């Protein structure tokens, strides 16, 4: 199977190709054409045509086509690259090159389909009920009979995509419905979702001129960021730091998502152990929305022990086993290196390791490695491991007085607060370290797609500005 | 060890055995001649004359062919850092005007090589490989590449003059480029690149009748895109021939350049550095998968593709190995220097009847620490 680059509707086969192999057997799965940054830069000179192609359609038509695309993505047999691909093929291919168990691949597929199927509701929520034509025409009249204008800041959204979790693709799915084209650099190990999604969209009638797929090395990512006026990049804390403050780049890094237990609830912590387990371990613990720390003022040893009892025995299973919960680290040596780092963290004063008694955490395969769940207990927020995040089920249970929590938690993509204390709730609502706030027992991994995630994508792609017309003039 | 298709089914004209044998004989004789020069008290440089005292053999009498140069211990590039740089000037050239060219130096003391006339000789020889149709004699040149203490800057100017033209230049400090990348200051990097490209476009649009240019692959693509934004192309801007080098070429990049950037202008990739001089490429054609294969300017310099662990053994044709460089000019003797690059060993080409190298890229064990900028 060969996945060519896709230059706004035109497949492009490169001389240079990477070979994707099965993480367990080393058997070839696909070849992916690799292009250079200059090719992207050249194509971007015509990026305006991507938006123009979308604007020839009715915006409500586009939404309907995306809903059809969601169905095709989840259930159809599509031509992806040079091969027909069924949903089962997709799941097996994605699992083979990412190390994700097939069950998790299927779950992420459903998540992506759900977003597309509910695109109309999502747009309505994110735009606060604006008529979709406003984004096509640039201005219009909202339901309060006030003229509003939304100006597109870029004809395309550049995406430098990751390989860790296919769930992140939900973030960019509304873009086409907003009349903005897509320029994607697929993740090196996970080209599957962007390719299949593009195929589904085109099959459903989205103009192929609105979509670009540019697999390649880091220079492709750099070129996308340099040439698209709006881009999303997924990366490490270092990547986040590099692009912080750049208004054209929305950077998605580690989430450091947390569960914060208030003093009024902590004596009933057992009631929430299922929520904690789900938040830590669902989707192989790979996502930025997976919980990496649980903070409470007391009972932390007991919480850590209970979590260890639930998570510690989870073992490595074959990727096609329906009970498989752990993803492999497919880069040789990666699991061992991460385990070395964790071991260092666990050795620090004030840190204990309750999952230790459930057997070795590092499992080394011939070509890859796994890490079984790790629960660390920290007697204060000071140890480095209290603020760590890893791409497997890892959680630090941190002892900290409630009064100090919010000043010490640091950046928190999703914060689930278990409390009914009005004063603590008020403080949580005001805490700018927390992006998504769940007030009450909602797992960190359960997202309401009708609410913005890491900023409203409409605010990123469009600028709300004044546009005045003479009194009495019509605004269609 | 990977095997290249071109080694099995070459689509280029492979040199015949007689030509290969003749070239080898010339190299053997040249090696002996160079030993006589570099290790004679009246002509050798202070460094080698002093170093010879530590050798267990006599280079003048015991080097009877090129192969015998393996008797020298590996050349250490650290020897090229710091002064006095005059220790490298052969006594046979005492009193002649000398240049010093530097390489590296983003941090710390750069490596340096003294030159009297070598750069001129190298580029005059290279000039003979340029097709007249695309590099017409008398045409003016644009040097869009590294300036400052680099050999390229003067070499390109000399090449232009040697061919009867005048060279227009742009300032470009590659050390600053590397620093920008290392600091992650990508906006500044982009701005600096644009600053260079703007100057180049200004020269091209100023009526200087520039037809030929040197540039690096990354600057070439930026220039082409910059011109495309203005509704023109490299060819329409007057350029007919481009001599490019400085960073890695890949077949895919070359294909992209030929198909989408050059608009019919001719480009010849080269591989070179301050120590070796300049290796020309055999014609780059689609039938050969846009393979870029270089041939060193023997006998003045020799490239061998050697086993990563046993650096005195060349790999089989098509095999992958590290670049080992030997420089044999009267100005400079560098035996068996292990370069920071690797590639595949190529069959001798009719025009250059000795081993070549293709797929040149940063040596895998050093690649992660190497920063490749616009230069």
Brief synopsis:
Chain A is an alpha/beta fold and 476 residues long. In chain A, 33% of the residues lie in helices and 22% in strands.
Helical run tally of chain A = 16
* Strand residue percentage of chain B: 15-25%
Strand content of the residues of chain A, in percent?
15-25%
Approximate shape of chain B? globular
Task: List its salient traits.
heterodimer; A: 476 residues; alpha/beta; Aldehyde Dehydrogenase, Chain A, domain 1; 2 domains; 5-stranded parallel beta sheet; 16 helices; 33% helix; globular; B: 375 residues; 7-stranded antiparallel beta sheet; 10 helices; disordered N terminus
Account of the 3D structure:
- The complex is a heterodimer of chains A (476) and B (375).
- With 476 residues, chain A is of the alpha/beta class.
- Chain A has 2 domains: 2-253 and 456-465, Aldehyde Dehydrogenase, Chain A, domain 1; 257-439, Aldehyde Dehydrogenase, Chain A, domain 2, CATH 3.40.309.10.
- Chain A has 16 helices and 24 strands.
- Chain A has helices at residues 37-44, 48-55, 59-75, 87-98, 102-117, 119-126, 133-137, 192-203, 218-227, 237-243, 273-281, 300-311, 334-346, 402-408, 422-430, 457-461, and strands at 2-3, 5-7, 10-12, 17-21, 28-33, 78-80, 83-85, 139-141, 147-152, 156-160, 181-185, 211-213, 230-234, 249-252, 257-261, 291-296, 351-352, 362-364, 369-371, 374-378, 394-399, 412-418, 434-439, 462-465.
- In chain A, a hairpin with a 5-residue loop joins β8 (139-141) and β9 (147-152).
- Chain A is globular.
- In chain A, 52% of the residues are buried.
- The mean pLDDT of chain A is 94.
- Helices cover 30% and strands 21% of the residues of chain B.
- Chain B has helices at 5-8, 17-38, 46-52, 59-62, 118-127, 151-162, 174-183, 186-204, 217-229, 251-261; strands at residues 99-103, 111-115, 140-144, 167-169, 210-215, 241-244, 266-269, 271-273, 277-281, 293-295, 301-306, 320-328, 333-346, 356-362.
- In chain B, the strands form 3 sheets. In chain B, strands 8-9-10-14-13-12-11 form a 7-stranded antiparallel β-sheet.
- The model of chain B is unreliable at 1-6 and 370-375 (pLDDT under 50).
- At the A-B interface, α1 and α9 of A face α9 and α10 of B.
């Amino acid at each position: 199977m060969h996945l060519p680059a896709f230059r706004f509707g035109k497949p492009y086969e490169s001389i240079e190709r990477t070979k994707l192999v099965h993480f367990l057997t080393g058997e070839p799965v696909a070849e992916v054409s690799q292009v250079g940054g200059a090719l992207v830069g050249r194509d971007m000179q015509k990026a305006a045509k991507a938006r123009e192609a979308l604007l020839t359609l009715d915006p409500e038509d586009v939404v309907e086509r995306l809903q059809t695309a969601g169905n095709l993505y989840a259930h159809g047999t599509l031509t992806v690259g040079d091969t027909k691909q069924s949903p089962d093929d997709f799941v097996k291919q994605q699992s083979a090159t990412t190390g994700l168990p097939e069950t998790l691949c299927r779950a992420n597929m459903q998540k992506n389909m759900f977003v597309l199927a509910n695109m109309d509701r999502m747009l309505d929520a994110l735009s606060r009920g604006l008529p979709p034509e406003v984004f096509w025409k640039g201005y219009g009249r909202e339901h309060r009979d006030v003229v509003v204008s939304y100006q597109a800041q870029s004809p395309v959204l550049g995406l430098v995509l990751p390989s860790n979790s296919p769930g992140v693709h939900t973030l960019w799915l509304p873009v086409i419905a907003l009349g903005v084209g897509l320029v994607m650099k697929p993740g090196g190990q996970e080209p599957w979702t962007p390719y299949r999604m593009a195929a589904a969209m085109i099959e459903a009638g989205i103009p192929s001129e609105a979509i670009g797929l540019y697999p390649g090395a880091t220079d492709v990512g750099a070129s996308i960021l340099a040439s698209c006026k709006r881009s999303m990049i997924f990366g490490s804390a270092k990547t986040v730091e590099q692009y912080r403050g750049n208004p054209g780049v929305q950077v998605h890094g580690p989430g450091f998502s947390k569960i914060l237990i208030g003093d009024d609830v902590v004596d009933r912590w057992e009631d929430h152990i299922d929520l904690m387990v789900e938040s830590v371990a669902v989707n192989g613990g790979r996502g930025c929305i997976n919980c990496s720390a649980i903070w409470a003022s007391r009972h932390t040893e007991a919480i850590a022990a209970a979590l260890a009892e639930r998570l510690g025995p989870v073992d490595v299973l074959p990727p096609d086993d329906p009970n498989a919960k752990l993803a492999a680290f497919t880069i040789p040596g990666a699991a061992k290196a991460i385990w070395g780092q964790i071991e260092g963290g666990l050795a620090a004063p004030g840190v204990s390791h309750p999952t230790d008694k459930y057997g070795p955490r590092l499992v080394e395969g011939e070509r890859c490695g796994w890490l079984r769940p790790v629960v660390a207990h920290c007697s204060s927020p000071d140890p480095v491991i209290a603020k760590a995040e890893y791409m497997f089920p890892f959680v630090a249970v941190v002892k900290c007085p409630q009064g100090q929590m919010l000043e010490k938690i640091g950046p928190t993509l999703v914060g689930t607060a278990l409390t009914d204390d009005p004063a603590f709730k008020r403080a949580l609502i005001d805490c700018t370290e927390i992006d998504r706030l769940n007030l009450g027992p909602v797992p960190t991994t359960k997202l309401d797609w009708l609410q913005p995630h890491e900023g409203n994508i409409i605010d990123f792609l469009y600028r709300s500005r004044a546009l005045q017309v003479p009194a009495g003039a019509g605004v269609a | 060890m990977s095997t290249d298709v071109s080694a099995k089914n070459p689509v280029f004209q492979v040199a015949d055995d007689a030509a290969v044998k003749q070239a080898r004989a010339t190299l053997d004789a040249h090696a002996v001649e160079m030993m006589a020069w570099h290790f004679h008290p009246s002509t050798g440089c202070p460094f080698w004359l002093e170093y010879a005292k530590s050798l267990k053999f006599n280079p003048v009498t015991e080097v009877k062919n090129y192969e015998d140069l393996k008797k020298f211990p590996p050349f250490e590039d650290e020897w090229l850092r710091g002064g006095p740089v005059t220790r490298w000037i052969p006594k046979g050239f005492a009193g002649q005007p000398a240049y010093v060219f530097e390489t590296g130096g983003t941090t710390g003391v750069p490596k340096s090589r003294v030159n009297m006339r070598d750069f001129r000789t190298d580029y005059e020889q290279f000039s003979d490989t340029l097709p007249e149709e695309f590099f017409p004699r008398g045409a003016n040149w644009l040097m869009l590449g590294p300036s400052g203490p680099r050999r390229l800057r003067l070499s390109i100017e000399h090449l232009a003059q040697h061919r009867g033209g005048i060279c227009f230049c742009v300032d470009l400090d590659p050390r600053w480029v590397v620093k920008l990348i290392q600091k992650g200051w990508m906006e500044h990097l982009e701005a600096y690149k644009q600053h260079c490209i703007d100057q180049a476009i200004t020269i091209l649009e100023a009526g200087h009748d520039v037809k030929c240019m040197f540039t690096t692959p990354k600057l070439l693509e930026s220039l082409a895109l910059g011109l495309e934004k203005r509704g023109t192309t490299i060819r329409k801007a007057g350029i007919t021939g481009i001599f490019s080098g400085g960073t890695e070429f890949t077949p895919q990049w070359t294909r992209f350049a030929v198909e989408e950037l050059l608009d019919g202008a001719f480009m010849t990739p080269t591989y070179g550095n301050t120590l070796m001089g300049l290796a020309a490429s055999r014609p780059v054609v689609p039938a050969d998968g846009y393979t870029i294969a270089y041939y060193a300017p023997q006998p003045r310099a020799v490239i061998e593709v050697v086993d990563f662990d046993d650096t005195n053994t060349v790999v089989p044709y098509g095999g992958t190995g590290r670049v080992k460089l030997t420089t044999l000019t009267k100005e400079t003797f560098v035996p068996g220097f292990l370069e920071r690059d690797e590639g595949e060993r190529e069959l001798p080409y009719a025009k250059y009847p000795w081993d070549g190298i293709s797929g040149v890229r940063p040596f895998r064990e050093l690649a992660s620490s190497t920063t490749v900028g616009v230069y």
